[in-house]
């Protein structure tokens, strides 16, 4: 157990000599050093691991909450300072890509976060160590933990070292796009409604299915988009709809 500012208590998983070596290996790879290794160890502790240990210690969700806010602030400050010619809407769009689950997971993979996560047996067997959400959440928890351990200046240097390349990807249009989010934001703003996705067809055997999804906006259907799971099919349908709608808007303006 250790105490944080304002006497907030967190119960941390025990650190064995072997685990301490693992944490030092991560620090070396990430180019950072924790004064208090308990912070870092807790950042890796998924709720499934804490639950399997009868709640004897906390999980990383509160650190993730904090890290998400710290990441957003650092990226917002950098964009504000380095892109003075951009309007608020452009800065918000760039930030949304940079701090997205896809982007944060990319950094987590680069730092091999999956090798260090403390995870429950059930989650381990279901492939949890490689799940996008678990990796991204752990990465944000590490940011939160490092902020508490070493302060804002240190965590800002850490974040910018890994996220400036992600910012540059967005500026150069080389980033992976989340068309579902883009479409929803566009449709909400323009039509005051929401896209509605419908699974219209499944083809192929159980081990190799293809899903076909349509998206309806204001009574008009777009797609279908196809993919090996519903999420991919929805993204592809959203991509078609977004490009079609924004193309019409561009033509009207011209």
Please outline what is shown here:
With 254 residues, the chain is mostly helical. Helix content is 59%, strand content 11%.
Please characterize this protein's 3D structure:
With 254 residues, this protein is mainly alpha-helical. It has 2 domains: 2-171, Ribonuclease iii, N-terminal Endonuclease Domain, Chain A; 179-253, Double Stranded RNA Binding Domain. The chain contains 11 helices and 5 strands. The protein has helices at residues 17-30, 37-43, 47-52, 61-82, 88-98, 101-110, 121-125, 132-150, 152-171, 179-191, 230-253; strands at 2-3, 9-10, 196-203, 210-217, 220-227. The protein has a 3-stranded antiparallel sheet with strand order 3-4-5. Helix 4 (61-82) crosses helix 5 and helix 10 packs across helix 11 (230-253). The model has no long low-confidence stretch (mean pLDDT 90).
Helical content class: 55-70%
- What portion of residues belong to β-strands? 5-15%
Named at the architecture level, the CATH assignment of the largest domain is Orthogonal Bundle
CATH superfamily of the largest domain: Ribonuclease III domain
| Largest β-sheet summary | 3 strands, antiparallel
CATH topology of the largest domain: Ribonuclease iii, N-terminal Endonuclease Domain, Chain A
Cα-atom radius of gyration = 21 Å
Note the run of SSEs as H and E: EEHHHHHHHHHHEEEH
Give the spatial strand order of the biggest sheet. Answer: 3-4-5
- Our count of helices gives 11
């Amino acid at each position: 157990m250790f105490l944080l500012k304002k006497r907030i208590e967190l119960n941390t998983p025990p650190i064995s000599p072997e685990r301490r070596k693992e944490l030092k290996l991560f620090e070396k790879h990430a180019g950072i050093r924790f004064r208090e290794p308990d912070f870092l160890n807790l950042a890796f502790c998924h709720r499934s691991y804490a639950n399997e240990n009868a709640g004897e210690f906390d999980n990383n969700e509160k650190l993730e909450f904090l890290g998400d806010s710290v990441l957003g602030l650092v990226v917002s400050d950098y964009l504000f300072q380095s892109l003075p010619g951009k309007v608020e809407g452009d800065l918000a769009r760039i930030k949304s890509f940079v701090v997205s689950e896809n982007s944060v997971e990319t950094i987590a993979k680069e730092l091999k976060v999956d090798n260090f996560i403390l995870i429950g047996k059930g989650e381990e067997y279901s492939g949890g160590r490689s799940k996008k959400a678990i990796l991204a959440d752990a990465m944000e928890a590490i940011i939160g933990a490092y902020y508490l351990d070493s302060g804002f200046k240190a965590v800002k240097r850490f974040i910018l070292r890994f996220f400036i390349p992600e910012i540059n990807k967005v500026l150069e249009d080389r980033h992976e796009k989340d068309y579902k989010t883009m479409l929803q934001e566009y449709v909400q703003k323009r039509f005051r409604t929401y896209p509605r996705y419908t699974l219209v067809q499944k083809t192929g055997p159980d081990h190799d299915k293809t899903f076909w999804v349509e998206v309806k906006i204001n009574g008009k259907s777009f797609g279908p988009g196809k993919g090996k799971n519903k999420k991919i099919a929805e993204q592809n349908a959203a991509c078609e709809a977004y490009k079609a709608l924004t193309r019409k808007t561009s033509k009207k303006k011209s």
